[in-house]
Amino acid sequence: MFRGYLSFLKIASDEFSEIIVDAELHADRVRLILIDGSWIDVRYPVKDKFSFHWQRDDKIYRIDTAPHHKGIRTFPRHIHFGSEDNVIEDSVLEENASPEENFKRFMEWVRGFLRRD
What we know:
Layout: H1 2-15, E1 20-25, E2 30-34, E3 39-46, E4 49-56, E5 59-64, E6 78-82, E7 87-89, H2 99-116
């Protein structure tokens, strides 16, 4: 998936440079540092298993596919909205979209938050 992480970095640079101040490539993830000091870790080891984790001070916003919220309509996709315990349906990503398209959707969602603040 290393090649996929490179594509995420390119998308971040080409389409979201106004909200990203730094980007780091690690063996298991991409880390993006945002203009407000918050950070995003992108883990996407295979097409159907991923985690987009946005750490913003003491709040987390994470969309992932960990299979532990079976009661959610979008299972296994779900959003930890503000905290680990506040879990809601994923209304951001699309089930059959490519990893790159879902990355773009997530980053657009983040950009929307930053614009509102």
